[in-house]
Specification:
- Its main location: membrane.
- The structure is a single chain.
- The chain is mainly alpha-helical and 366 residues long.
- Helices cover 66% and strands 0% of the residues.
- Among the domains are: 67 residues, no CATH class; 189 residues, Orthogonal Bundle (MetI-like fold), CATH 1.10.3720.
């Protein structure tokens, strides 16, 4: 009778584990990957050292004037000097507490939503109430109201990062529910609703955002009676919402089509109405599937907000150009653009990271 002796497993080859294994797998797994990796490393070697030297090592952080800053490196004192302009545009200095207070309220609401599981029995009522009241609070804080004793600040003084966030936020919040209705309308069996939804989506998708902004800024007032004025920022928000809505609708339509047919049949077999089937069965699954594409559309919208410059609205990028008109800080546009790029990257990264968090949170695969 044969006797088998259990042998200890051999350790994996060193070339397959540790740092060497990671490098082999991700950077040098083939001849093409090796060439591309070496090229990328060479570019990093050429770009990074002078960039770090310009941004950090040789940069000026404490200079008081432009003359005290060197021309061979960044002058971050300029950013500190213009920080209010980058953040709030021409918003009056004495009213900066209003957007700051709104930021605190926004963070509090985010915390309440994040920990809503602590009050499960009425969390949806709380969340819906917050989202219903929040736009009013934001409007009265930023714009003002004579009845409430808050000084009105016209929107032509809004600017900087505050304006960028306002435009992107309104576009995102307003376009999302409308996009859901359009996506459902496009799949509706009622021909009139389907025709109107398809016509709107295909019409707006065929027009660039810059054209829509130009239309709402220049052409739309021509259709109003004489004496009627329509706020320019509000017109831009309407145009951006119209544009973004169709892309959200198409993203959600893709999610609706990805839901297995069996889910529809199971909902029908359970005796659910069309509304119940969509709200409780189909739409949650479609939204979960569409999270990456929805966030991708929101990120694209955030970057497209710079186009509002063509109608005379100064977002953060436009402020970088406006700030260089100060004769005391001539020649510092590069620092302004780099600062805007860093802030934008951080915000977009947070959006992307939150998207991944939502995907993991709603992941039901095992």
């Amino acid at each position: 009778m044969s006797i088998f002796t259990l042998k200890k497993p051999k350790p994996a080859p060193q070339a397959k584990t540790g740092i060497l294994g990671w490098l082999t797998k991700h950077l040098f797994s083939s001849k093409i990957n090796t060439v591309l990796s070496l090229l990328a490393l060479y570019l990093l070697y050429v770009i990074l050292p002078p960039l770090i030297d310009w941004m950090i090592i040789s940069a000026d952080f404490s200079a008081k004037t432009n003359a005290e800053c060197t021309r061979e490196a960044a002058c971050w004192s300029y950013i500190g000097e213009k920080m209010n302009l980058f953040m709030y545009g021409l918003y009056p200095l004495e009213a900066h507490w209003r957007p700051n207070l709104l930021l605190v309220i926004t963070l509090l609401i985010a915390l309440i939503v994040r920990f809503s599981y602590l009050f499960k029995s009425f969390k949806y009522k709380v969340i819906l109430s917050l989202f219903a009241v929040y736009p009013l609070i934001a409007f009265f804080l930023l714009y003002g109201n004579d009845f409430l004793g808050i000084t009105i600040i016209e929107t032509n003084k809004w600017g900087g990062l505050m304006l960028t966030i306002v435009v992107a936020s309104v576009g995102i919040v307003a376009s999302f529910p409308i996009g859901i209705f359009l996506a459902l309308g496009r799949q509706s069996k009622m021909k009139a609703i389907q025709f109107l939804s398809v016509t709107y989506i295909e019409l707006i998708r065929g027009i660039p955002l810059i054209t829509i902004l130009f239309m709402v800024a220049v052409m739309l007032p021509l259709f109003f009676a004489e004496g009627i004025e329509f706020d320019k920022l509000l017109r831009a928000l309407i145009g951006i919402t119209m544009f973004q809505t169709v892309y959200i609708a198409e993203v959600i339509r893709g999610g609706l089509q990805a839901v297995p047919r069996g889910q529809h049949e199971a909902a029908d077999a359970s005796g659910l109405s069309f509304t119940q089937k969509m709200v409780f069965i189909i739409l949650p699954q479609a939204l979960k599937i569409s999270i990456p594409n929805i966030v991708g559309s929101f990120i694209a919208l955030f970057k497209d907000t710079t186009l509002v410059l063509i109608i005379g609205i100064f977002d953060m990028l436009a402020i970088a150009g406006l700030a260089t008109s100060d004769t005391d800080w001539l020649g510092r546009k590069t620092e302004g653009l780099v600062f805007v790029a860093m802030v934008t990257w951080v915000l977009l990264y947070l959006m992307s990271h939150y998207s991944k968090t939502l995907e993991k949170r709603f992941n039901t695969e095992h």
